[in-house]
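Re: your question from the hallway

Yes, I did run it. Sequences:
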Amino acid sequence: MGIIEAKSLTYTYPIGSKPAFEDVTLRIEKGEFVLVTGPSGCGKTTLCRCLNGLIPHFYLGKLEGEITVAGLKVSDHPIHELAQHVGMVFQNPENQLFALTVEKDVAFGLENLGKPREEIRERVDWALKTTGTYELRNRAPYDLSGGQQQRVAIASVLAMQPEIVVFDEPTSFLDPLGARKIFEVINSLNKDLGITVILVEHRLDLTTRYSSRVIVLDKGRIVLDGEPRTIFNSEAVRLLGVGIPKATRLCQILKPKGVDLGRTPLSSEEAYELLREALKQ
Amino acid sequence: MIKIEDLYHTYPNGVEALKGVSLEIQDGEFLAVMGQNGAGKTTLVKHINGLLKPTKGRVLVDDTDTTKLSVASLARKVGFVFQNPDHQLFSETVEDEISFALRNFGYDEKTVKERVDWALNLLDLAGYQKVSPFMLSGGERKRVALASVLAWDPKIVILDEPTIGQDSQQKERLRQFITQLNRQEKTVIIVTHDIEFVAECKPRMVLMAEGKILADGEARKVLTDPELASRASVVLPEISQIFLRLENLGFPRDVIDVYEAERLLLKRMG
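Structure:
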């Protein structure tokens, strides 16, 4: 059984006239790094909200079909129970942080679960160290830079030791270097800790290199699902207006004009290597 | 015309966000302000619509010192779209949101309706009139915020991170629209981290670091200077990263755009 399994999932918001997504069937295995992308308004965020039970428990509305996350049927388990298995990190950390110190913010979820003091201490310290925010533990979250805030938001999710973490455009308020740091933290959660990562993104140039799978949504349906190189090479992805990395795009437009580099590069380093080889000949 | 003369700004908490910035922006120009978080970009542009007043120095909009004007009177001329749409949106429907400022400026209902429809079409939001902005996706809310400002047709448009949450088609629409505004002699200033968007648009670029202007010039020049990029902690566009390394194979180094790269490579390999 996959760590996430959805069967014919359809959801309509309480005041929506048509479904936000429709007939989504999906299986994600433990340890995958899945990039979810698609045109603005395609249902990406809504789908994420199903993974930790915000849909249907908080947003209500009509959820049809079946979804199981970490072995739990989402509709049968409350949000606080699902939160121990699925963490969520949003676009804007300001919307997520609220305590007076970083440490208190990170401890909040565990305190709510009534965990013993020693265990809270240990898990909070571990989460702070893993995200490189241990030195900030006594600072006020609102006093930190956007990048630091986002790492604290990740730490507070991580402290719950979830098997899955969902990131919904976690770097849109950050500069590219700050963003890269966040993506490296996310990558190490996946590669070093084996956490299943679902990353919703438009900035594919910075993220594709970490992912093992890309899912493209359009108008509430999954239209493409597969290995990044295969997906980016398809004609469909171009027509959907998915902003594939520029290095990938360059090699793609060269191909029909007789310059075939053999492989689809996912980064500028890779594109350079391939071009250098080709230029030698 | 916007004229910024030796501008300093210190926030009440003592942070010196701007330390001597001078800049002239002509009517009809397209300017991108880039730099790391905390470099002073947003502080700088907030002086143009008078949200902030200089601690030292002067800001002139069409020859009038902004300290002599209220934010409300400047607003008619300078439209400002915030980074986070949730700081801006407050109405119950998209239509109300976009008509709000128009009604405040005293337009008659017929004009209000025309302008609202025009802005909705422009930003690919037709059919959303009666929808609550809070039911929309992040990218759609951002476009509602853009529509609500563009609707009143300000002469200077300042967009803080306009491409957040936008897919490549929406970005292309935005690019075309900015070009159109420029043709009508309107000034567009964007604050952005989206280096690939800047590489495609090729505007005049101001690169900031630690409250100062580090470079001011054509995007093509600024975005192909690795030394400058590292001083400003900016990551260069992917195409530029490729061509900086291809230079020793006889290619020009100042290439930032996919189609230009394609042409150069085909000339050699095709």
